[in-house]
Design goal:
The chain is α+β, with helices and mostly antiparallel strands. It contains 8 helices and 18 strands.
């Protein structure tokens, strides 16, 4: 990139990052006359990364660059635990971000472009007099690649003359121009936004009535694989009563073992994948009985 900033990468756009190899996809190397200068260059270079798809540690590294102890070179084995609050603190996503995401989703529906759509800075809808309204449910995706809430309700209404009104959980943004003020990438219902060096990952959650109409199962009563993985051990049985935080299955991904714990008290109705099987990210591992159907 420059005489003092270098990237050693083993992957390019379109490559598959599988669960069978080391998780490193690239190394960022910077040089400077002293530690503080090198860290400033490191932070600037990290701000320029735009990676959609795999969850990376870029945001974690940005936070590391701002920790006073790291800047001073005071790094030891207990560094992450000691500075955990600063390193793992997640910022609340502002309504403006949900508005931008919904506007991008509106554009791709109108333009008829889905799965892999990339709308860059300055993209316009191409329609100055659209008379249409769309509703979206957008849920933040955590570092494990799963959503932890039902999401935020966002309505987009074309007001004419290239302007839009966007409502985020009842908060309205009026007279928004038909121009996407950020980079928007959508694939399979997952949205990645890049805005001033900050990435946001959201999932477009289908309305409950749409899922039932096409026969989808209610994922609220199942535990999903957070990443592509192999089932190492199944720790429970069908029909077993389990407690919240109890280990259900142990998976292997990127050469690491992870215990998948129950998000709730409940009764296991089905073990979807058995020991030794391979699973894709987002597929159900364990299903629970629906308390409403039992009552």
């Amino acid at each position: 990139i420059s005489d003092t900033v270098r990237v050693d990468a083993g992957f390019i756009a379109g490559d598959e990052v599988s669960s069978h190899y080391d998780p490193m996809i690239a190394k960022l190397i910077v040089h400077g006359p002293d530690r503080e200068t090198a860290i400033r260059k490191l932070n600037t270079a990290l701000d320029e990364y735009e990676i959609a798809g795999p969850i990376t540690n870029v945001e974690f590294l940005k936070k590391v660059c701002k920790v006073p102890a790291f800047i001073a070179g005071e790094v030891e084995t207990g560094f992450i635990k000691k500075w955990g609050e600063a390193l793992f603190h997640s910022k609340e996503i502002q309504p403006e971000v949900f508005a931008q995401a919904a506007l991008g989703a509106f554009f791709i529906e109108i333009l008829g472009r889905r799965n892999g759509c990339d709308l860059s800075l300055g993209t316009k809808s191409g329609f100055s007099s659209i008379s249409n309204t769309r509703s979206f449910q957008l849920a933040p995706i955590n570092s494990d690649g799963v959503t932890e809430s039902a999401g935020i309700s966002v309505d987009v209404m074309a007001a004419g003359h290239g302007l839009f009104t966007v409502s985020v959980n009842g908060q309205e943004f009026n007279s928004i121009a038909s121009q996407l003020d950020t980079r928007f990438i959508e694939k399979n219902g997952d949205v990645t936004l890049f805005q001033q060096g900050q990435p946001y990952r959201l999932r477009m959650v289908p309305p409950r009535w749409r899922g039932k109409a096409v026969g989808m199962k209610d994922s609220a009563h199942s535990v999903l694989a957070p990443m592509p993985c192999k089932i190492l051990r199944v720790e429970i049985e069908q029909g077993q009563q389990v407690k919240k935080e109890q280990v259900l299955v142990v998976i292997e991904s990127m050469k690491m073992e992870t215990s998948i714990r129950s998000p709730q008290d409940g009764v296991v109705s089905k073990i979807v994948h058995q020991q030794g099987e391979l699973c894709k990210a987002g597929t159900a591992l364990v299903e629970f009985e629906d308390p409403a159907s039992v009552a």
